[in-house]
Amino acid sequence: MGDLEGLFAATKEQVDAIIGKRIYFGEVLGKHSEISRDISNDDLTILAIDESVVDILVKAVGRTTISGFNPLDYYENFDEEDEGDEL
To answer: Which end of the chain, N or C, is more open, meaning fewer C-beta atoms within 10 Å of its C-beta?
Structure first.
């Protein structure tokens, strides 16, 4: 179906909080796609860049999602009985 990618700013604690959790992205790949996934460390690439650069990017776009999809924006206590397709 496709891939989801994004660049976002987050603390280690925020990222750790979603590892192992099911994230429901909805129909982000088109009608009836219903995408959800258990997030693992392999799904994320952590960029170690200077905090001042992160601050500049966040200020420039006005939010912590720099581009694409941010799983933190989609995380909620998802009922696993309502699972969609795996990503």
So the answer is: N
